[in-house]
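Sample pair:
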Amino acid sequence: MIRVQFNIDDIREYQRGKLPENAFKIKTPGSVDEMLKMASPIAAVLCAVLIATMFLKTMGSGMRVVNFMAVFGGFIIGLALLAVHEWLHAIVYPKTAEVTIGKIKGKFVFVALASWPMGRSRFILMSLLPFVLGIVPLAVFILSPAGNTIWNGFMFGMASMGMVSPYADVYNVISVLRHTKKNDKVMFYEDDLYRISE
């Protein structure tokens, strides 16, 4: 079941499912701020991919390929799609799981919170599914004619938000891949990630 909650004070309140006895804590940063800081190199790499894409398209066509006001407009649309980003996380959980989508109070950070054990592959899918909000407009940007600067600008702005916003999710996936085995389950509990080995 998915519910919406604005101004979340403490994410731990929404991530207190039944933690199995055979659950082991995966080493992760102790707070949202610390996690965002640790994940920032991932954001830098994703930004570099976007810059390289823009450079290659511009150099390949020999002309300006975006309208910069349209890039800003696409960026605003991408910001509005942050709620869709969290919904894409939420739909991967089983229907019996309680998932809360909301915004952390005092921060411009949106979250999908749940405390439910999932297989490692399903956890990775849940974490990375929001990349479609960046990959699709980036592919459209790459394939559209260079002279269509307004359309290209909107697509590049949307791609920028959609590609960079999941950087913390990528950090979680890397942690899970490093600290779990193929048949393990993974779940959030309070501020932490746990592996559940059978």
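Residues 32-61 form the longest helix (30 residues).
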